[in-house]
Amino acid sequence: MRDHSTLRIGLFGVGLAEYWPQFEGLHERLLGYLATVEQRLSAPGRDVVSFGLVDNPERALQTGHDARAKDVDILVIHVTTYALSSLVLPIVRRAKVPVLVLDLQPSAAIDYSAFHARADRTAMTGDWLAYCSACPMPEFANVFSRCGLPFHQVHGVLQNDPACWREIEEWLDAARTVHVLSHTTLGLMGHYYSGMLDIATDLTDVCNIFGVHLEQIEVDELSHASLGVTEAEIASQLSVIRETFEVHEDCPDAELVRAARTSAGLNQLVHKYRLGALAYYYKGSGVEANENTMSSIILGTSLLTAAGVPVAGEYEIKNVLAMKILDTLGAGGSFTEYYAVDYNDDVVLMGHDGPGHPRIAQDKVHVRPLQVYHGKVGKGLSVEMSVRRGPVTLLSVVESKDHGFSLLVAEGESVPGPHLQIGNTNSRYRFKLGARVFMQTWNSHAPAHHCAIGVGHTASILEKIGKLLGIAVVRVC
Predict the structure, then answer these.
(1) 225-234 contact pairs (CB < 8 A, 24+)
(2) Is the pLDDT of residue 1 over 60?
């Protein structure tokens, strides 16, 4: 079985077979350009399957079959010179995957002096055809549009064009993220937090748009798994907890053992169901075992989040999707909401209780004991952290009556300053719009009150993810 964390790229070039006997060396020259593209696309997390240069109907038909047989996730078409739209259409129709068309000249401009110095006009035409990658692009666009086939395009230069290749890299990062989502099992444990109408969602549409598989998990199963863990497993998780977190001296040993036991039980469920993400909430009241489980879950869910299995509290299904997207991009993806504003410093204070994301913390995450989980049952250990200083991106998966799902995005900066030490995630964010206008604009797009925060500026990639998913993306700033 293939590794579904790897993006499989189907690459082929297009040209016109009639040119090869007319222009000596052109075919070999274009094959060299195609090899350069293949080399540039190759990277960790990607598997490039090259189908060569398609230049006649027979090769086009065979390439369409081969693309299906090789189970490619995206088609990258390198336009080497003029080519007929009838050569690309059958491949795209049969492959039924996203399409990225590259118009990459061999250099930024034709060397006009050297070109006109050639005495042979046939050779001059051959040189010119090597620069004709832009020529069939309108034709391709027209045919794709009339056939209802979405496609994406990048124009630029084969070498020494950082902006062009950055754009290509973003498209491939976006495609890999969509691919990972479509192979993610999302665990749903418990039920919605009573009264939070904004986070209720259409599970069928979640599966349809994002491609995830949903696995309903009983809290009782986690309680049972936690009770059955061995002393060795508890000791192992205690070691992980102490290595990962800054455990304060006022944390009772009994609470650490409770947290380690539940963490070990969570690991069993993740392994059993092959979970790639988890949304949970459960009151736990009335059944001692379940109350014990839910009040000792925060350290284990934070460890899972750091390990690439993002966990969202309050049964926030849409937001754990946002967290998974950012995490797949390597940006983290921590559960958050804004709760207050520092108008003196013009920053928005954001954070949340429950799971944090240790990999994007400014410093080592602190573990503190809480005598009450506000708005929730029980008491126990909680994590306290701030998101790493520097550029950040907010992402909300929005669900609306008229438009289904969309992505709401904002870029900002995590800045230093006073932080509340209350055993939760707390950070200070500054936005170019200013705090007031940012909140007005963000709220005007009707998101749920939770969002995901990731490090770095990733809005450009998120816009591409939206296009590949076929949903709108709104960029606030």
Answers:
(1) 225/265, 225/266, 225/268, 225/269, 226/261, 226/262, 226/264, 226/265, 226/293, 227/261, 227/265, 227/289, 228/265, 229/261, 229/264, 229/265, 229/268, 233/264, 234/260, 234/261, 234/264
(2) no
